[in-house]
Amino acid sequence: MILFNRLKSDCISDWKSYSEHEFVEQMGSGTLAKESFQHYLVQDYLFLIQFARAYALAIYKSRNLSEMRGCLEGLKAILDTEMQLHLKLCAEWGLDAKTIEKTPEAKSTIAYTRYVLEAGQAGDILDLFVALSPCMIGYAEIGARLSKLPKGQSDDNPYNVWISEYASDGYQEVADGAGALLDSLAETSFTEARYPRLLELFRQATRLEADFWTMGMELLD
């Protein structure tokens, strides 16, 4: 993940604010308020609908079949894994897909997802993948770290299912694939002249990720 790690290193303060957000830390310790997680999870389901569209856009923007297949793996992870996990957890509170999809999108949900979609519509596939990477790769990093905490995957942690999913070998492979695809795109599309723009896309997406955790913790609409 050469490009990803460079981007992350160059905005490390924003990255830590996202990946070590209080919402995340409280999930790891199992102390996060139930209503905060519920609010986040419903909004994250709505978020994933838009991110699925972003990956579909990435397929359209792809320049060859290899890139299309790489983007398809991300799309499948959203539709077949992440969204199903959300529905499974929400079902425990009596919420089904139709009910969730009728929930209004929070401002943070709209801000983040439309930012990424705009990045893809205005730019090329490299712009889009840079904007997508804090989510896809960041969740893998967060899941792996939380799984190693004393209560990360403990049976008495109510968030152990979420942590286990993002720490799983399957999701880690998807994230690794996203990093490899990002590097592959950079091989043919990256120039140093583009880097400031790519860094700004990455930085803003990372900040919007942190805002999304804050939305969940503070129950913002």
Overview in brief:
This protein has 221 residues and is mainly α.
Low-confidence stretches: none
- The CATH class turns out to be Mainly Alpha
Mean pLDDT: 95
Treating each run of at least 4 consecutive H or I residues as one helix, how many helices?
11
CATH superfamily: Heme oxygenase-like
Outline type: globular
- The name of the CATH topology is Heme Oxygenase, Chain A
**Largest sheet descriptor:** none
Q: Tell how many strands the DSSP assignment holds.
A: 0
Beta-strand percentage range: under 5%
* Head-to-tail CA distance between termini: 35 Å
The radius of gyration over CA amounts to: 17 Å
Overall number of structural domains: 1
Question: Could you say what the CATH architecture is?
Answer: Up-down Bundle
As a percent range, the share of helical residues equals over 70%
Please provide the ordered H/E string of secondary-structure elements: HHHHHHHHHHH
Structural class: mainly alpha
Describe this structure in words.
Helix content is 80%, strand content 0%. It has 221 residues and is mainly α. The chain has one domain (2-216): Heme oxygenase-like (Heme Oxygenase, Chain A, Up-down Bundle). Helix 4 (34-61) runs antiparallel to helix 8 and helix 8 (125-147) packs across helix 11. The N and C termini lie far apart (35 Å).
